[in-house]
Amino acid sequence: MDIDNWNFLLESWSRNWFAARDLLDPEEAEEEADDDAVVAGSLGFPAATEEQIVALEQRLGLVLPPSYRTFLQVSNGWRHAGGSVYLMGVAERVAVHGDPLDLQRLYEENLEDTSGQAERLMAGMWARSLQLSHDSDMTDVLLDPRDVGEDGEWAVYVYRGWSGDFPDRFTSFAEFMRAMYRDFHRRHGDDPGFENEVTRELDASVERARLACLAGGDIDEQLAVLDEAEAYGRGRARRLRDQIHAMFRPIGHVAAVMDMDDPLYVREILPLAAREHRRIDRDDDWFLGPHGEKGRAGAEAALREAGERSFRYEPPGPFGRAVAEARELARWGDTEGAWQVLAAAVPEWEPYGTEHVAPIGLLADPLLGPVVTPERGRQILTTPRAGQGPARRPAAATGSGTGAAAGALDAAGPDGLGWLAGADSDRWLNSFRFVLVHGIPPRELARRLGEGALLAPSSESELGAWGRRKTPSRDGAHARIGLCGGGWSFVFETDPEPFVEDRLTGLDARASLGTRAISVWCAGTRVPAGPGAAAQTLRFSYAEDGQEVYGYTTGGDARATRGMLPAPLGALPFGGPALDAIAAAHGVSLPRFALRSGRLHAVAAKSWIGPPAAGEGHATIKAFAVLRTRGIDASWAEERRRRLR
After folding, report:
1. Of 570, 488, 554, 544, which is closest to residue 522 (Cα–Cα)?
2. H helices of 556-609, where?
3. pLDDT (0 to 100) of residue 386
4. What integer pLDDT is reported at residue 635 of this predicted model?
5. What CA–CA distance (Å, rounded) separates 12 from 405?
């Protein structure tokens, strides 16, 4: 609002305030009663004369800032400026605040050497500011003559004594009044029948933003429109905005009408809310209560699926068929192929109605949610969909299940193996081992190298590898499984059991029965590098039909070879170059995104280490003992000891 347009704002505010009051029931109307306003027929007053304004300036010894001065030229004061201020800004009643509660001392005592100019201005404004509020619910509206902008405007601070919060700062009196005008609309936004020229224009802008979003328009422009409408309390704007935000940034809540008969709520928003609830581990009654008895069973089912990671996103139409295809690709590690299938099908996505702008249910799917990164979420939003652009048929991989996954992986391009030892590899890759077997599906590989049923798809952190594994036993150790292109399946395990060369059982070689297999065991240090730290060990093996053909083990300066190594696998240093050579020699790869950020099935892993031979003894050295000898932080050591118990 321009400061020369006070008449329009104040007349609209006054007219709409009376209209909102007429919608209240008698008891609420009594609470909102204002006899003076009713008699005057306005929230405002006659304009202050120039003599009245000059008298105020002379009394204060100050020249008033532009927007407050022009306000007085239209109305000498205002009623109901926000929910807690009932009268403010009358020229004859404005005075220096004087800080009667000695708040300035408290604020200045909390200043530090690093405190900025804004903090220092706020701390020092209490005694010098002008008190604009005359009748309020423990609320001060303070105009600070020392906090001045380049345009000559003074900052306004609103301090709500009952809240315990810091004051809200506005750059000018005009900005403060605009905010209070929005606040008035926001407080009545959910009132049935509350409608005026402002709400009608805002609702029209929300509908234009919805259509622009479906057409793949500029997301930031649409969000700016929705943010403005939401600031005025337009509930639809908030619901659409939250869906857009959810696609590319973390969001704890998606506003929605809680209706268990609405597929948008039940199939898209409820699963996402349940996932978030499980993530922060709140009490279930907090989630179930608002759904009432009618919706309790559905809400409980959503929580159960979120906890078990068994939710399946199943939208209607061609997009739903693409989602099913993509899920199978992601299940076995082809997250890139899964994304390509989804991206190609986005134009054929169908909303459940006019309150739906994006497939947010994807984010709740335990397999597909990790695939939709923030960048990909924005790509979905900027793709025309729901009939707003030319339809494109999804370029899904042919076939289904593991065969489709393998084909898509080949087309996507390999990640190789060197990334496992790259500079940006996560700490969980300090120690790892994997087996690649050609020509057999992941489930069969899981039977060869694991025991028990497949677990629901999990990330590494969800498996709880540190907390579950016990040393020296194998209780709780799990390996993740999947496909990695070229007809290869993989089993991958982080933080494996301690490496003991002379007690290896050959389990990895036996996994090659009837085919061929590659295994790599990187046994890294368990403690920070330093004097006495164990050198990393890399063991590579290539086997056919249950027998090792060749391999090597390297650690420190030592290197032991077995069989006839192909030339590319000659004397290479430990780490990425060695892994790259293995990948190049055999044309193999492991899916980086799936292992680092996705969810994969897992299986309880069998031990590769045999028991001590008859008459042999063995000792287990706990990591915390080593840490203590090096003076490493005791609390870190104690936590590590607790996890190893």
Report:
1. 554
2. 576-586, 592-597
3. 87
4. 45
5. 61
Task: Give every strand in the sheet of 537-544, ordered side by side.
Answer: 450-458, 600-605, 478-483, 488-494, 432-438, 516-523, 537-544, 547-555, 558-562
* Strand 478-483 to 600-605 pairing: antiparallel
Alpha carbon 620 to chain centroid distance? Answer: 41
Q: Name the β-bridge partners of 491.
A: 435, 481
Residue 121 CB burial class (10 angstroms; 0-12, 13-18, ≥19): middle
Residue 373: closest CA among 411, 333, 343, 417: 343
Q: What share of the chain is helix, strand, coil (3-state, %, to 5)?
A: 45, 15, 40
Q: Report the distance separating Cα 240 and Cα 409, nearest Å.
A: 35
Write out pLDDT tens, residues 479-513.
999 999 899 999 999 888 888 888 999 999 999 99
Which tens digits make up the pLDDT trace of 622-631? 433 333 333 3
Q: Summarize pLDDT for 406-440 with one digit per residue, the tens.
A: 444 444 468 899 888 865 555 446 789 999 999 99
Q: pTM of the full predicted structure?
A: 0.82
* Cα separation, 382 vs 212, whole angstroms: 10
Token reading at 375? 């960048």
Tell me which DSSP letter residue 571 carries.
S
Which residues, listed in sequence order, are joined to residue 434 by a DSSP beta bridge?
492, 520
Of the candidates 421, 290, 271, 404, the one whose C-alpha atom is nearest the C-alpha of residue 341 is: 404
pLDDT score of 11 more than 50: yes
Beta-bridge partner residues of 157: 142, 169
Which is nearest to 496 in space by CA: 504, 486, 485, 484? 504
Residue 190 has pLDDT above 70, yes or no: yes
Provide the pLDDT for residue 469: 42
Question: What are the structure tokens assigned to 458, written together?
Answer: 């999990």
Encoding tokens for residue 218?
A: 């500029």
DSSP string, 496-534: -SPP-GGGB--HHHHTTTTSEEEEEEEE--SS-SSTTPP
Percent of the chain with pLDDT over 70: 82
Residue among 277, 458, 254, 260 nearest 360 (CA): 254
Q: Are 222 and 213 in contact (CB under 8 A)?
A: yes
For residue 200, CA distances in Å to 89, 191, 315 come to 30, 14, 33
Nearest to 280 by CA among 249, 252, 300: 252
CA distances from 507 to 48, 365, 606 (A): 93, 35, 9
pLDDT of residue 25: 61
Residue 597's closest CA among 454, 448, 437, 419? 419
Per-residue burial over 335-365, b if 16 or more Cβ lie within 10 Å, else e, is bbbbbbbbbbbbbbbebbeebbbbbbbbbbb
Nearest CA-CA partner of 176 in 101, 245, 81: 81
Amino acid 407 reads G
Query: Which uninterrupted H or E stretch holds 154?
Result: strand 154-160
In this predicted model, what pLDDT tens digit does every residue of 106-141 receive, in sequence order?
Answer: 999 888 888 899 999 999 999 999 999 999 999 999
Instruction: Work out the burial of residue 69: count CB atoms within 10 Å of its CB; fewer than 13 is exposed, 13-18 middle, 19 or more buried.
Output: middle
Question: Please, which pLDDT band fits residue 35 given cuts at 50, 70 and 90?
Answer: low
